[in-house]
Amino acid sequence: MGILQRVQYLLETEPSAALEECLISILIAIARHSPTCADAIMKCQRLVQTIINRFTSKEQMEISISKIKSVALLRILARSDKENCLDFVKTGIFQKMIWQLYRYTSFDQWVKSGKEACKLSSALLVEQLRLWKVCVQHGYCVSYFADLFPALCIWLNVPAFGKMIENSVLSEYAAIAKEAYLVLGALTRRLPIFYSHMQQLDRGTTEEAENWCWAHVGPMIDSALEWIRLKKIPLLSRLIEWQNEEKLNGDIQDSAVTPLLWLISSIMDMLSAVLEAVIPEDNAELRHGSLPWLPDFVPKIGLEILKNGLMSFSGLVLASHDNSAGSGSFLECLCYLRKINGRETSIASSSCLQGLLRVAWCVDKLILLANNEPRDLFAKYQSFTREEKTLADGILHSSLPELRTLMTSLVESNGSKWRHMKSIETFGRGGPAPGIGVGWGAPGGGFWSKHILSAQVDARLFIYLLDVFPIVSVKDQFTTEGMNSIIQKINSVMGACLLLGPMDSSAVDKLLDFLFQVPTLKYIDFSIRQFLTLKQGYQALERVYEEEDYLLLSDVLASHFKKRWLSAKQKRKSAAGDEHVCRKNPKKGNILLDTIPEEISTSNLASQEPKCLVAEWAHQRLHLPLHWFLSPLSLLCSTSHETLDFLKVAKGGLFFLLGIELMSTSLPAELRTSVRNVPIVWKLHALSATLLSGMDIFEEENSRDLYKALQDVYGQLLDREEKVDAKKLKFKTDIHENYSTFIDNLVEQFAAVSYGDMIFGRQVGVYLHHFVEDPVRLAAWNALSNACALELLPPLEKCIAATCGYLEPVEDDERMLEAYCKSWVSGALDKAASRGSASFTLALHHLSSFIFQTCSGNMLPLRNKLAKSLLRDYSRKKQHESLFVNLLEYQRPDTRSEMPQHSCNVVNRLQILKEACEGNSSLLSEVEKLSSVIIRKQHVGS
Question: What is the distance between the alpha carbons of residues 442 and 757, in angstroms, rounded to a whole number?
């Protein structure tokens, strides 16, 4: 018997109230885990019906915790699948579970029932309203509004606050009212298109596609506007009239303030949904660029916002100023409240701000669309008041100073709060216990902690402010202060993208739109050119981008990131049919690691109406990993016909990556930006992944220059890490355990198509840097040696990062030293020596330094083994004589100037070779020959 059958059995045995409550809590936890678990509950015979029977069989007027949780369970099941919701509606379960909503109760009766009764009734009504909202979101039960409206009026209208405060039930009332307005917001989103359907409001609706009626909207707006007359609400009126922070801190100590803020937030959500339903989706409904007419409620909402002190007038310069809005504004108060320590108050304040900005933005947009001269709309007024002038000029324009301060605060917040996400991934992307909570047990709380929720609300608020203050504006484009502001905004957008989860894909979509707007790309181009011009050693870009180039970049980058990160994960094909890259040689099979996540090619799913209102965490790519912005380089084309698109994405990615890297360097060193925080190992891997499909990306000179500049920037980062913290480049540990396969394929491409191209060689050569972990360095060297490509590497001075990173410390890994020796003996380094390749310099340095300088103790047997191998090679190949002489005479770069005369060194080294021969007469004779060669060379030189 499974757990669900056991729960059903216990529920059928008339359990106690405490046991019943626990059993339903268990079912709620199971249903919340995943849609699969919710489906299992629905399929369990008689389980749901048993719960419904117990809900209806008890005393009808009695409210218990079990009843409240029963409604919550049905709401979760309805959210998980549209079919479940439809089944509840068709079978009458929905009506049975919300019958209390139909019962009319006067305000006085409800208050007089007592605090405990109000708490229970509030909790039940809240869950029932949430259940109704879920049905409305699925498109069902919209027509129930007409029957439920009379009983809802008590919760929609402004009550007598004195009685509620006296009986301590204000929080309970506010909770019901908030959910009631959230239901209205859901109903508003079922409204038909305003201008196309205003003459068809009386048409019938079907059960499968119910729409709300615009005729119901007017009374709902009137009720909502009563609530935003904040001066009539005792607690909120004090917030508007606040004189100083001490007085405000005293006012918000009341526990009812936060519920009221949530209520105002839900009202703003409903009003903004109404206004958004009026805004045309395209220009088809506009006549000569203007709306045919403007509904009366649009200016009415705007005037009520202004008259009741919700917005500030600090952005206006008017001839006369009255004090009708008090000494402060609700906007200023909310900006302060979001910064105080109380997390829930901060979240509620940010939600209020978001709703208020949405309403103001919609009113401004509709008035602008209605007429090119907004003042004509107010001809019916005898004279223009301050509020009317403000409405004509734009509500948001009236409060620009406060909004600009708020924007600055959010830019700083988003630029730093992304770091909390790093601790959540301590146990991996799914957390230690999937289903319990992402990041469960992480420092500071997991993904569902108030800490993260607060950061997410701020990120959403930041998105709305970007409509008011775009990343790049004309006036701040060419000033130092403006440039700093742009860089900080871009950094903040990057940080906000990391904060948002699967339920916020539309918000991430909008952030990407902002990030890749043409003005932003123009500034990135300006930053790149300025850097390359001012810095020595960099080549300026020759090509000048035109307007169509920026438009193409914008489209390519936005499309790529949305497709890559906002689409659901696809199941991998079988190994036989899996293809990830454009292949030059089909006989070789796949050349990519099919498990490196950045290289998985995905396609957008066909857009379908969602059957589930819950954002499932499985198969999602949000929240984004830290290295998400590297995907244009690491995501490779899957078939040959995608080559052109791949190249466009890769070239755009080079442009974008170089821009954000350079901008991050201009920020203060103590500011840990999300770009800086990505390990250099991921950045170098992304550059390498671009070359796996060949060198097509280098065909355009601009892209070649961008690639080289990016290599140089990453080389500087690598040098900086050497000074701060000599971490290994852990490709095998951080990227993939089979990274050597990636190296083999990269070297194969290098040997096949590069013809010694310096930029390609620099990228391959970075795997020989001493920061690279030993197995990967060994794999890179062996692959180059086997492909006879060691001579194709550029000189060490032209490799990525400083030469000391390749030379120091002296190699002490036995496998690497043996690999150097093997390549030497096999002749793989002959051409490398004549060309001055980095490979020969590395082998010469490490072999000479190990054999003649650093070897001691238990490493002596290895030294002797290497020396013998080199001497035997010398005895068989006289053409290697000059190589061996170089080995004997080699000096480390930091000691060459100190010892111009090194004859004593050579003598000592010859003695070391004699010791390494361990009495072998034939090898000793070779050492004597070498000694003669050295003496003869010295005589010639003198």
Answer: 47
Q: What residue has token string 């671009």?
A: 690
Cis ω before 470 (30° cut-off from 0): no
CA 351 from chain centre, in angstroms, equals 21
Between CA 127 and CA 79 the distance in angstroms is 13
Of 520, 441, 445, which Cα lies nearest the Cα of 483? 520
Q: Are 425 and 439 in contact (CB under 8 A)?
A: yes
Backbone angles phi, psi at 860, to 5 degrees: -60, -40
Q: How far apart are CA 318 and CA 390, in angstroms?
A: 10
pTM, rounded to two decimals: 0.86
Q: How far apart are the C-alpha atoms of 895 and 905, rounded to whole Å?
A: 12
Class of residue 226 by CB neighbours under 10 A (exposed 0-12, middle 13-18, buried 19+):
middle
Mean pLDDT of 108-113: 88
Of 700, 699, 802, nearest to 753 (Cα)?
699
Residue 652: Cβ-neighbour burial (10 angstroms; 0-12, 13-18, 19+): buried
> What is the tens place of the pLDDT at every residue in 192-234?
877 765 545 444 444 455 678 888 888 999 999 999 888 888 7
**Residue 878 buriedness (CB in 10 A; 0-12 / 13-18 / 19+):** exposed
Q: What is residue 896's DSSP assignment?
A: T
- Give the dihedral sign, CA 11/13/14/15: negative
Q: Quick one: tokens of 522?
A: 């123009």
Which among 136, 26, 43, 155 has a CA at the least distance from the CA of 85? 136
Neighbours of 432 (CB within 10 A): 13
CA 260 from chain center: how many Å? 32
Half-sphere exposure of residue 356, counting CA atoms within 13 Å on the CB side? 30
The total number of residues shown for the chain amounts to 942
What ranges do the domains of the chain cover?
500-605+620-771, 809-942
Assigned token pair, 386:
């301050």
Cα–Cα dist 558/521, whole Å: 12
The per-type count for the chain, helices as H runs and strands as E runs, is: 45, 0
pLDDT band at 242 (very low <50, low <70, confident <90, very high): low
pLDDT by residue (tens digit) across 555-609?
999 999 999 998 877 655 433 333 343 434 434 444 444 444 443 334 343 334 5
Looking at the DSSP bridge assignments, the partners of residue 729 are 772
DSSP 385: -
818 C-beta neighbours (distance < 10 Å), count:
15
Question: CA–CA separation, 142 vs 148, rounded Å?
Answer: 11
- Contact call for residues 876 and 893 (beta carbons, < 8 A): no
For residue 432, what pLDDT is reported?
A: 43
Instruction: Look at residue 290 and give its three-state secondary structure.
Output: strand
Using DSSP, state whether 49 is helix, strand or coil: helix
CA 942 to CA 939: how far, in whole Å?
5
Neighbour tally for 691: CB within 10 Å: 24
The one-letter code for the residue type at 716 is Q
Give me the DSSP letters along 664-707. HHTS-TT---HHHHS-HHHHHHHHHHHGGG-SGGGSSHHHHHHH
